[in-house]
Structure formats: C-alpha cells, structure tokens
Amino acid sequence: MTKQERKYIEYHLLHGVSGLQIAKMLRRHHSTVYREINDERNWDYKRVPWFRGRQHVVKMYCAEKAQKNFELNKSRCGAKYKLIQDTEVFKKIEESVLKGLSPDMAIGRLKQQRVKVDITSRTIYNYVTQGVSKVTPFNLRYKLRRKIFRQKKLRIHKRKMGKSIELRSEDINNRTEFGHWEGDCIVDKDDNAILVCIERMSRCCVLRKLEKHESKEVLERMREIKEKYYMQSITVDNGSEFWKITQLEDENFEVYFTHPYSSFEKGSVENLNGLIRRFIPKGSNISELTSETVERVQNQVNDYPRKILGYMTAQEKFDELKQSC
C-alpha cells in the first residue's frame, strides 16, 4: 500500500466508513484493508468527531505509524551483506580497488593466491551503489561511463599509407603468435605526445615520451623499441606521425595500417589508452611529464592483472612467452 492510501483509510475510518466500503473505494481486496486496519502495531490515539456529537479519544488506525512500520519492515528485507561474514577478505579487495584494480581483478588475484573468496565483483558494485563501501564510483573505471551513440558518416578522401591490415596472417589476428604489436599516440591540446605500443598476445606495453609529435621522432623511438623488444610486426593507424616507420621493415618485421577511421581494428592499444588515462588524465600537459614518470606509468599498467590472462599481469605473461621463444 502507498502512503496516500493509508491516509485515505485513516480519514474515512475517522468519519465512520467501514473497512469494506474503503476497500471498494480503493479497489483493493477487503482482506488487504482489514489486515492493515487490524494490525495493532499501526494503532495510535486519535480524536474521533462522530461519537454522539462529542469528540472522544480512542486508540485506532494511524497512517503515519503504519507507514513507518512498513518502511522499517522493508529495510529488513533481502539478503544480509556478505562482507559482514568475511570482513578481512573484503578489506583486501577494497584496498586493491582503491589502488587502481577493478573489483574483478582484485578478486581474481586473491583466488590466484589461493585465498577463499565468496564475494563476486557484482556484489562489490552493488555495495558501491548502496554506499556501503569506502570505494566510490570515481574509483571504478567503467562505473560512470555512458555510451554515446553517434550517427555514421560517409567519409571521403580516405588516406592509405602502406600495407593494409587485411594482409595480416591469421596467427596475428587470432593472437596465437608472440611478437606482434599495435601502436598509437596519446596527444594533449598542445600537440605533445606519448608513443604507446602493446604486444597483442601478452598485453605488455611500452611507453615513450616524444619530444615532438612528428614522424621523424616516432621513427627514432620505434627503432629503439624494436632493438630492445622482440617484434615481428606492428599495426598502426593512418596518422601522419607513422608514415616513416615503414623504413624499419625488413624480412623479420612488417608494418600494417588499419583502414581509415577504424580505430576498433587496433582495439588492444585503444583499451590501453583508457588505462593510461587513469594516470595521465585528459587535459594533462604531457610536456611537464618526465621520462621517469612515463616509465613509472608503464610499469603500473604492466603490473595490472588481466582476467583474459588468467589474472596474470601483462609483464608476467610477456616474460613467460619470451622464454618460450
């Protein structure tokens, strides 16, 4: 019953209307109305104006008291919080999330360490919504995100810079071979940039701060990365900063370009950009960042457990695959 219906019952009872008549007016079953009226927890002292023309104080149905009882009973409904049953495990999960892990990653890492965890990531999200946890929506990467729907536009004058992604082998597409990378640049409003590369199989990343956001600088940084890390190919977009890296191609290294306006074709590096933005938010001045800061961000991202890797970190997976080469 609603609060308005309870007030309606109280008003008509004060004026001598029977419960059966009230039920008909409310279009409720008479048993529902009589249960509400006859419950002594809902009674309080009231002045009735209709007894022999004189006011008398009697104990009868009170809408306000009935509503309070209803709200109290409702608050006791449902399953009790699981965190009450195992507070130590919940505190560990909470600390991990506050350090930057997602609830699923935090739970997965504990299970990997053979810690018994009965709480699911969905439960953690529910606690955040209900305000039970120290964790807020701002600590969760996807909690505040809203999907923006845009109309598709037909684009013309599409630039193609080199070997198409269509020529990639199935081993690269299916992530069954180690040493194939994706590349992109994170750029600020003043055109300062960070070169971002990620190995497709292990999700291990390499970040390099660029002195200038131009093709010559990208070529030099890519040459350094190629010499230090095991690379068989790299897939990049059609940005002008990448047009010179085809100079690095040889019999053991190939460069592929996505279709224009198709960033989803290098989804690993696009997702990585989102992780990096947790440490270098949009609006940050990249020119003020030191190379040590960029390297520290790289290490933090590589030490982030991934569900797709069985809750191993990207660095752990990269080292494991490198040993097997």
Report on the architecture of this protein.
Helices cover 38% and strands 15% of the residues. The protein folds into 3 domains: 3-75, no CATH class; 82-139, no CATH class; 165-324, 2-Layer Sandwich (Nucleotidyltransferase, domain 5). The protein is an alpha/beta fold and 325 residues long. The protein has helices at residues 3-14, 19-26, 30-38, 63-75, 87-98, 103-112, 121-130, 170-173, 215-228, 267-276, 291-302, 314-324, and strands at 43-51, 54-61, 180-187, 193-199, 205-210, 233-236, 254-257, 305-306, 312-313. It is elongated. It contains 12 helices and 9 strands.
Task: Summarize the model shown.
The protein has 325 residues and is of the alpha/beta class. The chain has twelve helices and nine strands.
Question: Which key features would you list for this structure?
Answer:
12 helices; alpha/beta; 15% strand; 325 residues; five-stranded mixed beta sheet; elongated; two-stranded antiparallel sheet
Which helices and strands occur, and which strands form pairs?
Blueprint: H1 3-14, H2 19-26, H3 30-38, E1 43-51, E2 54-61, H4 63-75, H5 87-98, H6 103-112, H7 121-130, H8 170-173, E3 180-187, E4 193-199, E5 205-210, H9 215-228, E6 233-236, E7 254-257, H10 267-276, H11 291-302, E8 305-306, E9 312-313, H12 314-324
Order of strands across the widest beta sheet? 5-4-3-6-7
Can you summarize the main beta sheet? 5 strands, mixed
**C-alpha end-to-end distance:** 69 Å
Helix and strand string, N-terminal first? Answer: HHHEEHHHHHEEEHEEHHEEH
What's the number of extended β-strand segments? 9
The level of helicity is: 25-40%
Radius of gyration: 32 Å
The name CATH uses for the topology of the largest domain is: Nucleotidyltransferase, domain 5
Discrete helix count: 12
By CATH reckoning, the class of the largest domain would read Alpha Beta
Give the name of the CATH architecture of the largest domain: 2-Layer Sandwich
| Parts with pLDDT < 50 across at least 5 consecutive residues | none
Indicate the structural class.
Answer: alpha/beta
Overall form: elongated
In percent, how much strand structure appears in the residues?
Answer: 15-25%
Total domain count: 3
